[in-house]
Amino acid sequence: MATPSDPLFAKQWHLPMIGNLQRVWSDYTGAGVTVAVYDDGLEYDHPDLAANYDSARHFRFDGTTYDPMPMGSGDAHGTACAGLIGAVADNGRGGVGVAHGVTITGMNYLNDLQNAYDWDDQQTSPLYDAALRWAAGFDIMSNSWGTDPDYSDELNLNFPGNASAVDAAHFDWISANGRGGLGTIIVKAAGNDTLNANGDGANTSRHTITVAAVEKGGFVADYSNFGSSLLIAGPAAAYTTDLTGAQGYNAAGTSDGDPLGDIDYTSTFNGTSAATPVVSGVVALILEAAPGLGWRDVQSILATSASHTGSALGGGRSGYEVGPWQSLGGNHWNGGGAIYHQSYGFGMVDAYAAVRMAEVWSRLHGAARTSANEQHFQVATDGVSVRISDSDGRDRTPEAEISFEVTKNIEIDSLQVTFTVQHSYTSDLEVVLRSPTGERVVLCSHDQPDDVRPWTFAAEAFRGMDALGLWTLEFHDQLSGDTGRVIDARLDVYGSANSANDVHHFTDDFRMLCNAEADRRVIDDTNGGVDWLNFAAMTGNLVVNMGAGGAIRVKGVTVAGLATGAAHFENLQAGDGADRLTGNTLANRIHAGRGNDVVQGGGKADRLYGERGNDTLSGGAGGDILTGGEGRDTFRFNAAFGADRVTDWAHGVDRLALDDALWGGGQTAQEVVETYGAIVAGAAVLTFAGNAVLTMSGVGSLEGLANDIVII
Rounded to whole angstroms, how far apart are CA atoms 637 and 662? Predict the structure, then answer.
């Protein structure tokens, strides 16, 4: 897509931070995707929003339509959020939304329908329940709201009827019923309190994509909530739509501090409130690219495609970060385990990488991952109480431990840990979850609820890992003078049935990670199954030899290689570059992606796909199936090949490169066609000696074929 003409586009610093959006916009703008913006209202006749707004979807209950127009001159929050998601492009006004072709509808949740819940008595109502479940009629629910995560009773998921428990139950229902059972995608702000987001039960729901905020320099904002419940971070975008005229964030003649000349827009919006709609916009692009994804797929795509931001891996914390980046277990992400940070989750949302992964996700992972096929395993202490001794002065030595044996083979999406502590001073405590392979993630540190009641913490960091084995909850008393007990504890594992069919994902962080952790340079998979190498999210030209010991080169640099000894990877997915891909001795399936690619099969029956671009495909030994895809493709064939089939031959567009050893040389292309060609069952067939046969499906005539042949 050409650079948008909107005057504020160049000032929207958040857009370059989330990947190559203009390349994405060449294919996807969020068209056909619907977003419900739950906020303080939405000025839906704003000239930069009106064309993307659908008032027919306004919330209705018991004969009343609830108009989301803002109630006061200061209710500009929802309008700002909506602009970040889907402000109209190329209309000569304002800026551009991340998904500028999306369809938006507002819900005045904060100033209107939130009050249908009785906060004093912690009691819901039919109106409140209907208002939350209305989101199931949309593809995405964007929530730039939250509550101070202070571990208060109304935020406790373990007390049915309390606010967060009610909201979490509705999120569960929305995930199960939205999008025809695929699940509405629920995006939620982590909050702006510089506190552990786990202190608000709504942030610990596995159904929410909890979003942290990053400033222009790539580091976490000083106010952004942190913790193990974060999935991802987004930029705290500033330039967006405002209430029109002299109201909202930007009102001329006031002391609001917004210097922007056009008062229908603001340059001072920020917070996790701004990061959340940016992520919602990315989700809209994902769903246009792959509408059949389940809600659990979308969460995994965001996590897997996220880019590193902030301090360096292996270095200390910087700025307002809580803790360092850490590598988790597994070997399926950039040659090792995923990296996770208490301030960023899996990293900065990357629209380009996420969309490219979304396009191929179902090919790699199969059926949509939804509520209906989610796996769950629970193990609890069954009332066994454990003493927390006083501090021994050593931070790495826990004063109490609770262990959970997980016996169900689950690939983890999310973990939830619930425990009840009785302690004379809980602010002394840090609680850590340790995986069977030794990775440690902090659940809370000096911020637990200070009375005897259960609390549920989310642990997103273990996504993609195997749940089997002994998990340990460590309780560290870090100051002397107080003791206590763990009254009870529970571990809930959510995910998918594990399989030996593995997908190894690679992103643009691969080279950086290999430099930081040398073990990532050798890629292997020895547990059997049919395995994928997925480079769809990577930019630049790629060279991959899938054979044992084969090299992986990115942008001309050898980054890593496959393990020696034997070939273990059957399948490969490439990305947008001009790639050179070579198969191995297994039956390969190779998809070249976009770009002008060269694809060479191995020694068995391979399936090669050029996809978009002018590609060159060569099956090699064995009976291979070749599909060029879009573009002017060249199919190479020689005497060492077997019986190959071209599935999408186009006369006058594609070319055959034939080795003259097939017939001993000395013939023109026309003579080759006349001597060896025939039409058989609606296909053009060239039959040479030694069982070398090339079939072009769907070709009813040999006329003109010679013009498409190049003899080599």
Answer: 9
